[in-house]
Amino acid sequence: MKREIIIKRRDAVATRAAILAAAHQRFLRESYDGVGLRDIAGDAGVDVALISRYFGGKEGLFRAVVQHDDKPDMFREPKSVEELPGFLAKLVVEDADENLQQRMEMFIIMLRSASSPKAGEIIRELAHHDVLGPLTELIGGEHGELRATMLLAILMGVGVVRTIMMVDGFADDDDIAECTERFRCLFAAALTC
Fold first, then answer.
1. Is residue 37 located within the same domain as residue 78?
2. How far apart are CA 159 and CA 103, in angstroms?
3. In total, how many domains does the chain have?
4. How many Cβ atoms from other residues are within 10 Å of residue 138's Cβ?
């Protein structure tokens, strides 16, 4: 009697996505240092060795969770420093609910893990690459990096108010134009300090 061997075809894309989803949920609830790869693998229903195969280990997995793959060059969209205040104001005011939820979770993940030396390094590197670098390049001139940092501080402050404190009275339908203009003025003022 012949034994039939059935080989289960592995779906690398689905496995990688399952690991990322499990890691996202773990890092959302626990700090970088408190999360174990075996826990993530168990949540994803995969062998722990697959995390190393797909992500190179915990650092690579954390980096993949916090990277902005959907719009990595978002802060390169404005083509001049004059466009920047309006772009940032629109970003703050016209934030769609699903984007806000995703950014809220990402913000919480970063806050939870920022005290870890390794996770903090990854977060700073990504913030510089994705936000501060493009803004500094666009702003240019003397104190360009300081001005970019000030803009990021304002954006992060708005993020804390909206996501952590759950205060979101910025964009009522009746006041969108007024709110957008006030934020534009705030960002413009930060550029002139």
1. no
2. 8
3. 2
4. 20
Its pTM surpasses 0.70: yes
Is the residue at 109 inside a domain? yes
Letter string b/e over residues 80-101, b meaning 16 or more CB atoms within 10 A of that residue's CB: ebeebbbbbbebbbebeeeeee
Coil, helix or strand at residue 171: coil
Sort 28 into a burial class: Cβ within 10 Å, 0-12 / 13-18 / 19+.
middle
3-state secondary structure 91-139: HHHCCCHHHHHHHHHHHHHHHHHCCCHHHHHHHHHHHHHHHHHHHHHHH
Q: Is residue 142 part of a domain?
A: yes
In this structure, the answer to whether residues 135 and 103 fall within a common structural domain is yes
**Straight-line distance from the first to the last Cα atom of the chain, in angstroms, rounded to the nearest whole number:** 84
19 within some domain: yes
- Cβ proximity of 32 and 38 under 8 Å: no
Q: Which tens digit of pLDDT belongs to each residue from 144-153?
A: 999 999 898 8
User: pLDDT confidence of 111, banded at 50, 70, 90?
Assistant: confident
* 119: containing domain: 74-192
Q: What angle do CA 178, 81, 124 make, to 5 degrees?
A: 95
CATH code of 61's domain: 1.10.10.60
